[in-house]
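Protein data sheet
==================
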Amino acid sequence: QVQLVESGGGLVQAGGSLRLSCTASGRTFSYYNMGWFRQAPEKSREFVADISPSGGRTNYLTSVKGRFTISRDNAKNTVSLQMNSLKPEDTAVYYCAAGLSGYNNWGQGTQVTVSS
């Protein structure tokens, strides 16, 4: 089990940027796949991006490809999501997640609001 704490959310105008960070507790962080998910009001939670334990493989939701970049620092137990060219439809609560096969460890979420 790992405990996850997100930070970096906020209010930004369309076209702006935000960087989300997630810090994990525990000494086995480097074993975990790490992901970012989001949930907009009245919508289901959706996958945004994930990264393999070594950082060598990443996957993205089609609508964020080219705008968002996921990265990790195993020495610091952190995973980040750089979000550029933000759009109002990116508004959601963003969650960090960790898992060995599937995601079963979740942070509390951080709000991202993009104004038009």
The mean pLDDT is 96. DSSP finds no helices and eleven strands in the chain. The two ends are 39 Å apart (CA to CA).
